Amino acid sequence: MAHLFNRNVLLGVSGGIAAYKSAEVVRQLQEQGATVRVIMTHGAQEFITPLTLQALSGHPVHTQLLDEQAEQGMGHIELARWADLLLIAPATADLIARLAAGRADDLLTTVSLATPAPVLLAPAMNQQMWRDQATAANIETLQRRDLHFIGPAAGEQACGDIGPGRMEQPPAIAAAAAALFHTGALAGKKVVITAGPTRELLDPVRYISNHSSGKMGYALAQAAIDAGAVTTLVSGPVSLDPPAHAKCHRVESAQEMLDSCLDLVADCDIFIACAAVADYRPAQIEGQKIKKGAEEISLQLVKNPDIVNAVAAGESAPFTVGFAAETQNVLGYARDKMQRKGLNMIIANDVSDHGIGFNSNENEVTVLWETGEQALSRAGKPAIARQIMGLIAKATKN
Ligand code: PMT
Known about the structure:
By secondary structure, this protein is α/β, with parallel strands linked by helices. The protein has two domains: about 10-180, Rossmann fold; about 190-395, CoaB-like (Rossmann fold). About 35% of the residues lie in helices and about 25% in strands. The protein has helices at about 20-30, 50-55, 70-75, 75-80, 95-100, 105-115, 125-130, 135-145, 170-180, 215-225, 255-265, 305-315, 330-340, 380-395; strands at about 10-15, 35-40, 85-90, 120-125, 150, 155, 160-165, 190-195, 200-205, 205-210, 230-235, 245-250, 270-275, 280, 300-305, 320-325, 345-350, 360-370, 370-380. The strands form five sheets. It has an eight-stranded mixed beta sheet, with helices on both faces. It has a five-stranded parallel beta sheet with strand order 2-1-3-4-5, with helices on both faces. The longest helix has 16 residues, at about 380-395. It binds ligand PMT. GO terms for molecular function: phosphopantothenate--cysteine ligase activity; phosphopantothenoylcysteine decarboxylase activity.
């Protein structure tokens, strides 16, 4: 199964003999469906050439932190944000020590600090170095910071020693990368997600709507599927294909979205309202196209039903999550909305910044619940969606 389909994997290669296997790691990741870009440390280039990894990945290999040309193409912060996963294979003892110390003295360590994506390390070193207390302490530090590890395996080493320290085989590394996305944290749960805009008809050819593209809601659906949930999208009109394995109900107006949601939430554990629902609709839909005539015309609007409120107020309501798209006092208004609408959780989205929010590829949000909050720093919508789903899984764990 292509468990890394549509995923951006940034492969970091540090300088050990196992670096020669990184070519096969690229292939295995691609076989799982990933798009792969590569960063090599100076040491790694002693073992395998950037040209090899460029040819296999189909992208220029990144090697320098201070490289004007590379920064003009895809700078190190963009690279850090591009990644859905940073995989470092091999991760040498030195690289592990530098990560544990929080160093940012080359491109790979800098990107490791700058990425909001999960980080997976495949250690490779001499068995005595692996057993050394300093390495053990560094690994413990990184595990406490939620970095993930695959291996090392034990066996005969390039130096002739026998013991633990061999880098895991590339298929096992790619499988560990895929397993990070397919968490099973919501296995057995049913999740309903609204996404996209609604359209409120004025006449047969015109409507009121907004700029929601559906990207955030569809990313949430993918994250819910990855977490093992049976996932249903109730989607306004967007130009995206729903994720494979999601059921999708297409609707146009707020009223249609409400009807669809009320049907579905009777059998649902988690409801996430990401759609940008029109608060008002025209009081009447003209049967014929409104003709141009008067210099001014007035439009009478009536309030639409509040979908997330109706779901949260229902008998045996699911765990209900809303979004708050705000342009000022973002956290204050979001917390107020959570309380007024009776929600278990709300995602505060500052939509005054055009780089995040409506129709952007990235987002930056704060997740609020009754007793706490967590800020999620700027990242691609798929990465934000995975983090939101992780918090929902935690909050709904029995
Ligand atoms: O689709 P994208 O281009 O990726 O953009 C994502 C997004 C900006 C649309 C998304 O991140 C977001 O913020 N969605 C909520 C947009 C919104 O309408 O927010 P609001 O603050 O007006 O509404 C608060 C909550 O009530 C939302 O959960 C909304 O879905 C819900 N609502 C609002 C009105 C209504 N009549 N019924 C509702 O259920």
